[in-house]
């Protein structure tokens, strides 16, 4: 895959960072995020958005290296989830499933933030605005990795399938996402080991084909 948004290609694996532009806190490099500083409406929305990416990624078997909802001294995006996708499988059928799973993770933030808001509502538009780069990366991944996806009808069908599946996964993971949101609001961010400790025990049964 090429470079899109905050995605970077590394030898042996692809790492993606979902940048959330909803947080309003900006600190200098010496600043420390305190719990009472990150309990704001905008950081709560950021936590909801990023938690969705993290939980769905773990449910589908992807490695999540870190997640944060406050600014990092080395990265001034207010929030980010860093996800390692692995290399696209060489088998066409497995590659299509992999690309679909990547797209499901990307769309998860949109559906978590929109909640029960109907499409076309102000809340839905706000969630879509926060997920522009996520949507672009999902579509790019499908186009580049699924045979025949440049045909308009097949492309739109696969995008819609990924969106529908993401919405369903969001409905299935309310409790675990709520726990992760609370932890992020308390800490500001989590490394890989803490993500696995908080998220994995609460996940519903994983698809047996997910081995990452």
Descriptive notes:
The protein is built from eight helices and five strands; from the N terminus they run ββααββαααααβα. 53% of the residues lie in helices and 12% in strands. β1 (8-10) and β2 (13-20) form a beta hairpin. It is α+β, with helices and mostly antiparallel strands. It has a five-stranded antiparallel β-sheet with strand order 1-2-4-3-5. The protein has helices spanning 35-38, 41-59, 92-114, 122-130, 132-145, 152-172, 174-187, 192-199, and strands spanning 8-10, 13-20, 63-68, 79-84, 189-191. The two termini are 19 Å apart.
| Largest sheet geometry | 5 strands, antiparallel
**DSSP strand (E) fraction?**
5-15%
Q: Which H/E pattern describes the elements?
A: EEHHEEHHHHHEH
- First-residue to last-residue Cα separation: 19 Å
Overall, the morphology is: globular
Could you name the ranges where pLDDT drops below 50 across 5 or more consecutive residues?
1-13, 20-38
Helix and strand composition category = alpha+beta
The tally of beta strands, per DSSP, is 5
How large is the radius of gyration? 16 Å
Rounded mean pLDDT is 82
Percentage of residues assigned to helices: 40-55%
